């Protein structure tokens, strides 16, 4: 239901019968909370986050559109996260069955102001869904509504900040060294099998666009990381050793994944980021960056991510 959040900003709260919940601010269509059935917060939001437009909220799941980072003339990560979205009054029929789930449909359209910086008409519909197992699904649908026949091109990311107990005790993999069961599902049906990490190409930050290949079977963290993994497998897992918890990100329509932790120096340089908070967060961002998306008028793009947090007994032995 709709209520007032920090600084009186409107937010929507989704609840699921077992007790899990999601909160989304209309400002930026910004998910700022995702709790499991035990009321544990699974996303990171900085204690110094400024819930005051036009600053983007530090943490949760910022929507980066129509431009990822500084890959173009717009402000970093585009303007969708700095706009007030509305509840979509008439969502078009949704291809995915959402019958036993709670969800909200949000809508952003270009304003005259936006046309000055990004001269295109669009409709961006976001459906945020809380599933029966407490899984969080986000589906973005962007449609080109240019009346003049002009196509447009954009890059996109769900800039998800996961809450972790200690970044130095985390692994990221797409390898099959981890299987974990979704709560309440039989082991077989719910096994989270992910593929090997081998030969994952990445760009080490955007400036030099130099390509590297990640070796080894997992990504670990000892210093600042800001990498764009290109054309990754659809499933990525974050293993939180201390919490014996695995986050699983499943993505569709989003070929790349950004991995970011600012570490100490960069964290200190961010006014809305606590000095030591880098230890308790990790961004894994389902994204479309290397191959920007081009839509002709009338065409629609869909980008989905599905997040689940499962106990990882086996993985804790890592
Ligand atoms: O997550 C990748 C990244 O582009 C980093 O380079 C860092 O800038 C981060 O996004 C945060 O960006 P923001 O504009 O939210 O401070």
From TrEMBL:
<feature type="active site">
    <location>
        <position position="285"/>
    </location>
</feature>
<comment type="similarity">
    <text>Belongs to the glucose-6-phosphate 1-epimerase family.</text>
</comment>
<dbReference type="InterPro" id="IPR014718">
    <property type="entry name" value="GH-type_carb-bd"/>
</dbReference>
<dbReference type="GO" id="GO:0030246">
    <property type="term" value="F:carbohydrate binding"/>
</dbReference>
<dbReference type="InterPro" id="IPR008183">
    <property type="entry name" value="Aldose_1/G6P_1-epimerase"/>
</dbReference>
<dbReference type="Pfam" id="PF01263">
    <property type="entry name" value="Aldose_epim"/>
</dbReference>
<keyword id="KW-0413">Isomerase</keyword>
<dbReference type="InterPro" id="IPR025532">
    <property type="entry name" value="G6P_1-epimerase"/>
</dbReference>
<feature type="active site">
    <location>
        <position position="159"/>
    </location>
</feature>
<dbReference type="GO" id="GO:0047938">
    <property type="term" value="F:glucose-6-phosphate 1-epimerase activity"/>
</dbReference>
<protein>
    <recommendedName>
        <fullName>glucose-6-phosphate 1-epimerase</fullName>
        <ecNumber>5.1.3.15</ecNumber>
    </recommendedName>
</protein>
<dbReference type="InterPro" id="IPR011013">
    <property type="entry name" value="Gal_mutarotase_sf_dom"/>
</dbReference>
């Amino acid at each position: 239901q709709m209520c007032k959040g920090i600084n009186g900003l409107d937010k929507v709260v989704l609840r699921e019968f077992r007790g899990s919940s999601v909160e989304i601010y209309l400002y930026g269509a910004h998910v700022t909370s995702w709790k499991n059935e035990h009321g544990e917060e699974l996303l990171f939001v900085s204690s110094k986050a400024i819930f005051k437009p036009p600053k983007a909220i530090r943490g949760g799941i910022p929507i980066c559109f129509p431009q990822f980072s500084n890959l173009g003339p717009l402000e970093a990560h585009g303007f969708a996260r700095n706009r007030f979205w509305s509840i979509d009054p008439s969502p078009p029929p949704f291809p995915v069955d959402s019958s036993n789930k709670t969800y909200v449909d949000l809508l952003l359209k270009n304003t005259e102001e936006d046309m000055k910086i990004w001269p295109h008409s669009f409709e961006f519909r976001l459906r945020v869904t809380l599933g029966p197992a407490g899984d969080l699904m986000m589906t973005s649908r962007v449609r080109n509504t240019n009346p003049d026949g002009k196509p447009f091109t954009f890059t996109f990311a769900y800039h998800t900040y996961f809450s972790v107990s200690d970044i130095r005790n985390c692994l990221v993999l797409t390898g099959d060294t981890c299987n974990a069961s979704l709560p309440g599902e039989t082991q077989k049906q719910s096994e989270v099998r992910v593929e090997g990490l081998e030969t994952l190409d990445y760009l080490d930050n955007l400036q030099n666009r130099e390509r590297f290949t990640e070796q080894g079977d997992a990504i670990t963290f000892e210093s600042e990381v800001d990498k764009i993994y290109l054309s990754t497998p659809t499933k990525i897992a974050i293993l939180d050793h201390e919490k014996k918890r695995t986050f699983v990100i499943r993505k569709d329509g989003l070929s790349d994944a950004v991995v970011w932790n600012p570490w100490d120096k960069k964290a200190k340089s961010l006014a809305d980021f606590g000095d030591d908070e880098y230890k308790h967060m990790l961004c894994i961002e389902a994204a479309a960056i290397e191959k920007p998306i081009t839509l002709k008028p009338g065409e629609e793009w869909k980008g989905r991510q599905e997040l689940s947090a499962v106990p990882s007994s086996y993985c804790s032995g890592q």
